Amino acid sequence: MAAPRLVEMMTTGQDDRKRQARWMAVLLALVAIAVYAGFIWMTAKGML
Amino acid sequence: MNTATTHDAHHEEHQGGLLRWVFTTNHKDIGTLYLLFALLMFIVGGAMAMIIRAELFQPGLQFVDPQFFNSMTTMHALVMIFGAVMPAFVGLANWLIPMMIGAPDMALPRMNNWSFWILPFAFTMLLSTLFMEGGGPAGGWTLYPPLVLQTGNAFPFVIFSIHLMGISSIMGAINVIVTIVNMRAPGMTLMKMPLFVWTWLITAYLLIAVMPVLAGAVTMLLTDRFFDTSFFNAAGGGDPVMFQHIFWFFGHPEVYILILPAFGIVSQIIPTFARKPLFGYSSMVYATASIAFLSFIVWAHHMFTVGMPLAGELFFMYATMLIAVPTGVKVFNWVSTMWKGAMTFETPMLFAVGFVVMFTIGGFSGLMLAIAPVDFQYHDTYFVVAHFHYVLVTGAVFAIMGATYYWLPKWTGHMYDERLGKLHFWLSAIFVNILFFPQHFLGLAGMPRRIPDYSIQFTEFNQISSIGGFAFGLTQLLFVYIVIKTIRGGARATDRVWEGAHGLEWTLPSPPPYHSFQTAPEIK
Amino acid sequence: MWVEKAKRVLTALAGAASMLGGTTASAEYGLNLHRGVTPISHEAYDLHMLIFWVCVAIGVVVFGAMFISIIRHRKSRGHQPAQFHESTTVEIIWTTIPFLILVGMAIPATKALVAMEDTRNSDLSIKVTGYQWKWGYDYIDSGVSFISSLATPRDQIENTAEKGEHYLLEVDKPLVVPVNKKVRLLITSNDVIHAWWVPQLGMKKDAIPGFVNEMWFRIDTEGTYRGQCAELCGKDHGFMPIVVVAKNEQDYNQWLAAQKAASDADAAAAGRDWSKAELMARGEKVYKANCAACHQAGGTGVPGAFPALKGSAVATGPKADHLKLVMNGRPGTAMAAFGGQLNDIEIAAVVTYERNAWGNDTGDMVQPSEVKAAR
């Protein structure tokens, strides 16, 4: 519904910002997963 | 979904009925869902608190057995933290951030929908554990092993629901960050952003940094219980104190996740009603950032009694005391904003002033708790209970209520009933102090927390506290009534709503259009 | 009844008010921290009062400024808003001054902490073990050891009898220590995490399985001091009190000798064969003190949480399995390993009791010698 037309609706230049936002979101999610895995790994190794 | 193909580009459209809310990707709809969900959980968690206060009204066991009492204290905390306060802040972020930075919507609307709709499932699962064999989780919201491993059939469900809440929070946080970083209107530089946006940006980073840590900790509990690992099992070479370190590495930043957006809200409300710009905007931003940084290096002040080496105790004591400096700066700035203003005291301002006063009281007891040699006496007593309820109830919850009164006219287009709003504030402010202030005395006199029954010397103050608790609980029904009444109708609100209000959200009509800024506004 | 209660509540409120007013009615109404009876508790109390007054002073300044502003700078009084909104000078001032106050607080706090953590040169060491839900004490130097559990009768807790003066803060066997001696506690746990705390002694320490924590105290006046477990440890967390009795040197030695004699007598009695009546009588006592909290006095358990013993497969099945379960516990549940907590006689008696009480008429008897063999 609203989401697909959001991109259309945005003024020029905002499509690009939307693409950037997606990449950033992926990166942040990877950071979160790395923190998760890192803490378990460090505990298992007895490093903490 | 068919509306998407038949849309009229400049017309507001959404599906009717319930499905509108299920499929919505609109920041205002999702914000509303979050806020209503938070209100529902506030009532559920509040009902649990009423059970706790009823049992503690008198010494002896009257209403519930100790196991159920423990699961009430555990669930009350989980529901209030993860179900009421955090979703309320995310709901406010959803409603306000796009409007405040001049964006049409959040950057990732579908993920926004998903991050909300995970929550009802997570909490249905969490609450259903109360009906399982062996009862709900009763080891405290801190889930310390080995005790939490004695939970009955509920255990894996509790862990899984915490995973779901964590995923929801992380997705919400990612959305907030990418929206703030990418979707600001031209000219809206970082140091021009409203303070609420700033505090949420910092909060979102805290969430991404620590929610995975909690997820990791509870996953290790799960494998300890079901797959014979020994992360935290001393008999297998593990370390139960390790869990506490990992938990509080999450837990302390979590405390600031629950209060930083409240700082932002109060920093919006006070200048409006003092009719004077916020004092020390940039120092407020830096203070927020330093509180966030310090929150990562103070976790072990929750564990002064576990037997750390002296050097560790000293480090965590000094680091914790240091937090008083940026927090103090914030309080001084708020007072200076009020100083020589032209103040009026509508309901949002009352809640903001109440916040500053009572949060500061909570800050004082926090400072006392930071002093390790005395913390040995305060630790795990009602003094701690009083402390964190002052910062969370008269802090976070008062800020959320203030925010509701402040922006509700903008959201609904209707003014709330000012007379009832003020009544709600005064009743809340009086009863919350009757509820929590005597708990300082109980703690100092030696009453441990999380006990269903107590020795007779503690009777009087527990009775006062319970009476305050019941009255405070009843008062919140008034809040529910006021909100519903305002949604359904009332005097028309103007676009600016408040005489002294500044910011992009006040340039939009009340209620604002479905997509906030279809063309980006110019910021001078 | 109601009038009486209202009166008590009002007196308490009056007490709170008088404390806020600055007088020290605190001791009477339990408003403030105990000054305690040890050097470290005095130090903690003094620090507590220091920080309290510092907070009060800061509060007076901040709230004072705020309320002056609230009263004078109102729109309704026609006050025109000033437009100042920053000043680097005042920001620096109100960053520096709190920092200096904190340094001033950190110095005495550091001194106190260093003293509290110094457990060297103790006169006496006692090992404290937390169990769900009782405390075990071992006098390391003299070999005396016993379990200390709640002495408040069940009917007081369930409101069918008048509550006593020390409701929930009384135990069957208190920890007895000499005054004016540096007593070092070695604290650990057998199951979940507990915390050993007596407010008057000024210190609290967690009892953690797999760890031995240390703390010390030196009591300066004879008397009885009461405290409780301070870390949530399950269902009966609120029902595992601590009582410390401080005696003078002579009384303490007498007490110690009596304890030794009693444990020697038990050791001798463990060698002989016991009659069923003796075992049942002793067993009922042991059951009430150790088992009834979960499995209930009638052996009915709590459905979903604690299994029933009445007619259960274990209590009516093979004797050896029953004995093994009691001695080794069931890991991952609240069922503790009693092998380390109870002596041969007590285990033999309680197993015999469970196999013959409440209609579990197996007729079996367990002798202390069998328990010894099973160890």
Short description:
The complex is a heterotrimer of chains A (48), B (524) and C (375). With 48 residues, chain A is mostly helical. Chain A is built from two helices and no strands.
Keywords:
heterotrimer, A: 48 residues, mainly alpha, 2 helices, rod-shaped, disordered N terminus, C: 375 residues, alpha+beta, Helix Hairpins, Immunoglobulin-like, 4 domains, five-stranded mixed β-sheet, 12 helices, 10 strands
Give structural notes.
The complex is a heterotrimer of chains A (48), B (524) and C (375). Helix content of chain A is 81%, strand content 0%. By secondary structure, chain A is an all-alpha fold. The longest helix of chain A has 31 residues, at 14-44. Residues 1-13 of chain A have low confidence and may be disordered. Chain B has one domain (29-507): Up-down Bundle (Cytochrome C Oxidase, Chain A). Helix content of chain B is 66%, strand content 0%. In chain B, helix 3 (66-101) packs parallel to helix 14 (382-412), helix 6 runs antiparallel to helix 7 (240-257) and helix 14 (382-412) packs antiparallel against helix 15. Chain C contains twelve helices and ten strands. Helix content of chain C is 44%, strand content 15%. Chain C is elongated, with a radius of gyration of 28 Å. Chain C folds into four domains: 1-28; 33-116, Helix Hairpins (Orthogonal Bundle), CATH 1.10.287.90; 124-267, Immunoglobulin-like (Sandwich); 272-374, Cytochrome Bc1 Complex, Chain D, domain 2, CATH 1.10.760.10. At the B-C interface, helix 3, helix 9, helix 10, helix 11 and helix 12 of B face helix 1, helix 3, helix 4, strand 7 and strand 9 of C.
